[in-house]
């Protein structure tokens, strides 16, 4: 078994907050992805979730105290063996103890011995998240290389609402996979990928479009496409966790949780998406058009349902606005525009040749080209393609998670920002 094939070793650290119940879903997703997961819980965490639950889901005993398995020196063994440490939730207390190098329980001791990526997922009340002490602790941990996610905004304990809510488990699992992919690449197993979550977009305003659009034919039917929105959501998630202020304009999508720390605007038609994107782009440094918009719309909307007759009705179509082209032709010198092209090859040319022609025709700064069909790109968890630049350069985007592809796109964007 090669290093890339073996199950990855993950330490799931759980600290004492009400959001600890979501750690069970994170654990399930990490296990379903084929990873070996060892839960290390604080004693306060076990006041919220019993050890039996974690043991049943992980298939391993829960570690809590440093005086367990003393001959094996468990905290050293776990830290050395881990490919990734995920902290769900990372409470204000845990972040403070990490920042000050404390080793007063099994979890913090393990963190001091770990030499792998650490993903801390905060959850706490807004006042605690915004307190200067927590802000300083997070800055310290990020400076040392810990990935501290921005929390979501929403309902907290009781009737309170605000920033500090734990991101949803699918999003946490997505970032865990991204860091594992980076670890494989860094060890030489997957082709060399730069660190995926630097804070290199802080102070930048980003607009991302995602999903498809649906053009009404009548009160029942629409003309649309198959885009799930997963790639656009991944681009928005990664940008937000790299420090950007992100507006996500989403059309028709799969049942996706809103990304943490992202402003979400919902639209349905291409014209609605055009208006929302152009409005948000006025103050943006970067616009990424990942949405698969409908190029055409019915020339007229039937007031009543179109009845099924002997022959299918002829439905005249007209062009929708070209949002990407409009973004490029606007006179905004500092703005960088990224397009997406879903292509199929034929006798006239390859997918890459059609992508190059589209880049020249649209005039954007970067273009991501995906080959579609046969279970590729649309409605999938993974993606691959090519990244073409206006200066004529190109680079492959190897098969991997959509978050990994997003990280590579943001690497290219960050290099080109003034």
Descriptive overview:
The protein is an alpha/beta fold and 418 residues long. It folds into two domains: 9-186, Rossmann fold; 205-416, Rossmann fold. It contains 14 helices and 19 strands. Strand 9 (215-216) and strand 10 (222-223) form a beta hairpin. The chain starts with 8 loop residues before the first strand and ends with a helix. 47% of the residues are buried.
Helix content: 25-40%
Mean of pLDDT: 91
Q: Strand order, biggest sheet?
A: 12-11-8-13-16-17-18-19
Oligomer status: single chain
Number of helical regions: 14
The CATH H-level homologous superfamily of the largest domain: CoaB-like
Beta-strand percent range: 15-25%
Structural category is alpha/beta
Gyration radius over CA: 23 Å
Number of domains: 2
Number of beta-strand segments:
19
**CATH fold-level name of the largest domain:** Rossmann fold
Q: What is the CATH architecture annotation of the largest domain?
A: 3-Layer(aba) Sandwich
Quickly name the level 1 CATH class of the largest domain.
Alpha Beta
User: What is the rounded distance between the termini?
Assistant: 45 Å
Q: Spans of 5+ residues with little confidence (pLDDT < 50)?
A: 187-193
- Describe the main β-sheet briefly: 8 strands, mixed
What's this, in brief?
With 418 residues, the chain is of the alpha/beta class. It has 14 helices and 19 strands.
Helix and strand arrangement:
Blueprint: E1 9-14, H1 21-32, E2 36-41, H2 45-48, H3 51-58, H4 74-81, E3 84-90, H5 92-99, H6 106-113, E4 118-122, H7 126-130, H8 132-144, E5 147-148, E6 152-155, E7 161-165, H9 169-186, E8 205-210, E9 215-216, E10 222-223, H10 230-241, E11 245-250, E12 262-266, H11 270-281, E13 286-289, E14 296-298, E15 317-319, H12 323-329, E16 336-343, H13 351-362, E17 366-371, E18 382-389, E19 394-401, H14 402-416
Helix pairs in contact: 1-3, 1-9, 4-6, 5-8, 10-14
